[in-house]
Amino acid sequence: MNHQCPVCGFAFLPYPPADYHICPCCSTEFENDDVDYSHHQLREAWIAGGARWFFGQPPAHWNPWLQLIKAGYGAEMPWFSRATHLYVEAYATVVAAPTVRFIENGIFAETAA
Amino acid sequence: MLKPYACVACEKVILAKDNVASLISLFNKIVLIVPTGAEIPKNAVSPYQWAVFSIWDTEPGDELKHYVLCTQILYPDGTQFAEIVKQNIVIEPAKRAQMVAQFIGFPVGQLGDYTVLTWIELEGHKVFGPIDFKLGVELLRQEPSPAKVAN
Predict the structure, then answer these.
(1) What Cα–Cα distance (Å) separates residue B62 from each residue in A12, B49, B128?
(2) Is B81 in the A-facing interface, judged by CB distances under 8 Å?
(3) Is the predicted pLDDT of residue A100 greater than 80, yes or no?
């Protein structure tokens, strides 16, 4: 059974985050590092240090920011806490579909060939 | 054999009871607005939920096969973002197959065109594709708005 790190959100801890086990991702030693600092503070420190993988090689295609988002900590990423906004331009890219159209209210519909 | 009918990126897909899909906010570009001076890491991901919606033409007998839809995102420099999403395709006889690949974040660390690749595997072997389309990421720098001064 895997456990999730309450600091960085790494979801594959082989042991519960306790008893001096160390997260291989953010290096938190549980019941030691998190005695004097909260998980939030430790997470801030890890992010401020570049959110780098701590021990050995990270899993293939590992991404710390995606990991934080999945764990529900997406709002704590520094560039988003400074009023970053996203918007999109809405144009469809349709592949091999000459009889497809997108009507105004967004309902997908099929036109006559 | 499955053949592609449509493949688009959008913010959300809502499937009605009759399986008609409503595609919310189709997009082909994301513009990231950040304050002047804010650093964006090369591997940055925005917490933006989006999806790749695709429809596949089927032929008789496809409903008996265990096709897998694979979706891969490539950075503008060609390197792979996150893991390849693999989903079993449920096919009903004589109907098109609709698939939704969900993503909880969009990579924004590199500017330019990201490539979405989609292909079909059968028993671990690629049997169709990939088909691909581009999603652009632009960056706009914006001066922070001046703080309001209380009278």
Answers:
(1) 36, 31, 13
(2) yes
(3) no
